[in-house]
Amino acid sequence: MARKGWSKSLSGFAREVEAQQNKRLRATALQALSGVIERSPVDTGAFRGSHRVSVATPDNGYSLEDTDRSGSATLAKGSAKIQSVRTAWEVIYVQSNLPYAEAIEFGQFIYKPAGKTTPAGYSIQAPGGVYAITFDNLRAQNT
User: Fold this and answer.
1) Cα 74 from Cα 81, distance rounded (Å)
2) Integer Cα distance of 21 and 17 in angstroms
3) How far apart are CA 47 and CA 125, in angstroms?
4) Are 92 and 73 in contact (CB under 8 A)?
5) Which residues, including other chains, have CB under 8 Å from residue 10's CB and lie 6 or more apart?
6) Tell me, what's the pLDDT at 78?
7) Gap between the Cα atoms of 18 and 38, Å rounded
8) What pLDDT, in 10s, does the model give residues 87-130?
9) Separation of alpha carbons 71 and 51, rounded Å
10) Beta partners for 123?
11) Within 13 Å of residue 31, how many CA atoms lie on the same side as its CB?
12) pLDDT of residue 117
């Protein structure tokens, strides 16, 4: 009886699986970053420019000077950080730490300038928030 074996070594198979997982991790993180940038309401561009990408630990900083009305600079900077990830099991954070980011996400604007917020306190440009909608879309695409 002929003996059957693996066509690849187990370590080679493990490296291949890890490489595929790393590629999927980076693609998903890039989708998340793109999603929050695209859904960000734009006034001065401070919120759109505030999205930060970090690896392994959250980046808790922010600057009101990081304005980016188009989102292209924020996407390029975050994409470079995402593409630098070389292991399959890293945690990639996409976040905004602006003081009013939670108000945009959860509709908590107390000061409601006419024409810029809904009665519930959401930005008219993002009446359902930004991050939750992006996450729901990612989950739907990847399940």
Assistant:
1) 11
2) 6
3) 12
4) no
5) none
6) 98
7) 30
8) 989 999 999 999 999 999 998 777 766 778 888 788 889 999 99
9) 9
10) 117
11) 16
12) 82
